[in-house]
Automatic annotation (TrEMBL):
PANTHER family: ACETYLTRANSFERASE (PTHR43441:SF10), RIBOSOMAL-PROTEIN-SERINE ACETYLTRANSFERASE (PTHR43441). It comes from Kitasatospora cheerisanensis KCTC 2395. One of its GO terms (molecular function) is protein N-terminal-serine acetyltransferase activity. It comes from the Bacteria. The keyword Membrane does not apply. InterPro entries: Acyl_CoA_acyltransferase (IPR016181), GNAT_dom (IPR000182), Ribosomal_N-acetyltransferase (IPR051908). This is Acetyltransferase. Coiled coil: none annotated. Residues 15-173 form the N-acetyltransferase domain. The lineage of its organism: Bacteria, Bacillati, Actinomycetota, Actinomycetes, Kitasatosporales. Keywords: Transferase.
Length: 208
């Protein structure tokens, strides 16, 4: 029997991560055809509504059914608008480890949604699903993705040299070229709040 993720939703303070729906196709196509997204990801170019419908109707359900991962639409609680995409892939069920990729829509950048979605997913994986490792890989020139990793408390483990292709590097889509990948990880203990050093400090922390 293949292990796989349940069809579920994750709620954070401002966001709801849920399965993709048919009505997400127009927003998904606009988001994934954005120039910055196209530079740093392997999504088809140009990214059309047909591509979005294929992700929604075939790719995402197939990935979950095969136990490889799960795909979440990232939406705002307040407006229900689509503000990002978060994908788990290359899941190793024996190790209880998986890789995460994330995209923020151009109309939602600068709001801190990616770190919030990533931390919410990590908490769900560690606390509800018994996972022991969440891995991120960011292109060497993708400073925005690196900042997201840092904001979550992920630990940089090293560099995979010439391990990925990007479309034109930092300045937008263009011919593909090789780039290094920075590997980051989150473990369950990375999300645990630090214990106060002394009992007095603990009482002080509880009062505030």
């Amino acid at each position: 029997m293949v292990a796989n993720f349940p069809e579920t939703a994750i709620s954070t303070e401002r966001l709801l991560l849920r399965p993709l729906e048919e009505q997400d196709a127009p927003g998904l196509a606009t988001m994934l055809s954005d120039e910055l997204v196209q530079t740093w990801t392997e999504y088809p170019r140009p990214y059309t509504q047909a591509d979005a419908r294929d992700l929604i109707g075939r790719q995402a359900p197939e990935r979950r059914a095969l136990g490889r991962g799960i795909v979440f639409a990232v939406t705002e609680h307040l407006t229900q608008r689509l503000v990002g995409l978060l994908e788990l892939d290359r899941t190793d069920w024996r190790l209880r480890a998986t890789e995460v990729r994330y995209v923020t829509a151009p109309w939602a950048r600068g709001e801190g949604y990616a770190p919030e979605a990533l931390l919410g997913t990590a908490q769900w994986l560690f606390e509800d699903r018994g996972f022991q490792r969440l891995e991120l890989r960011t292109a060497a020139g993708n400073t925005a993705a690196q900042q997201v990793a840092q904001k979550t408390g992920a630990i940089s483990e090293g560099v995979l040299r010439n391990a990925a292709l990007v479309r034109g590097g930092e300045w937008g889509p263009g011919p593909e070229e090789h780039t290094d990948l920075i590997v980051w990880s989150l473990l369950p203990e990375d999300l645990d709040p630090p214990e106060p050093a002394h009992p007095a400090d603990r009482h002080h922390a509880l009062r505030h």
